[in-house]
Design a protein that fits this description.
Layout lengths: L1 H20 L5 H21 L8 H28 L3 H33 L3 H19 L12
């Protein structure tokens, strides 16, 4: 049930965020809010490892994590256009962003598995996920107004 909640809520967030992205807030505030929601969801999971999959805490945490990641994904895909001076620079930024993203996506499960095997529990892994989600907030806020080219972002 947790995977269904995470994926369902994440899909809804991914599809609805682009509609609101240029209407509500700034790109910085939207990215920071998505990172904060993901961090709260991750924190809830890390603080309640003994909760059953059907508990309200587990379902709520999976939902929060789905909202955070689901919102962050389309917003981050729009960033190259927002920060680039022209089409060729946007293409270069997109290529670099996808390279780093796929590198992290390919290495993270293996590294987190190694940490889990070394420690014998998921505790350290869960706290690393909290730290990674929390790191999205200051990274989003580091996008100064001068870096974002579009008006209102």
């Amino acid at each position: 049930i947790l995977i269904a909640v995470f994926n369902g809520v994440g899909l809804l967030a991914t599809l609805s965020v682009p509609f609101f992205a240029d209407r509500i807030g700034t790109r910085r505030s939207q990215l920071a809010a998505a990172g904060l929601v993901a961090a709260v969801g991750s924190l809830a999971i890390a603080l309640t490892p003994g909760e059953g999959p059907g508990s309200l805490i587990s379902i709520g945490a999976a939902g929060l994590l789905g909202i955070g990641i689901g919102a962050f994904f389309p917003l981050s895909l729009a960033l190259p256009v927002d920060v680039a001076d022209g089409p060729s620079e946007a293409a270069s930024i997109s290529a670099f962003m996808l390279l780093v993203g796929y590198l992290f996506a390919s290495v993270s499960p293996v590294m987190l598995g190694v940490i889990r095997d070394a420690t014998g529990s998921f505790t350290v892994v869960l706290w690393l996920l909290v730290a990674m989600a929390a790191a999205m907030v200051p990274l989003a806020l580091s996008l100064g107004e001068g870096r974002l080219r579009r008006a209102g972002t």
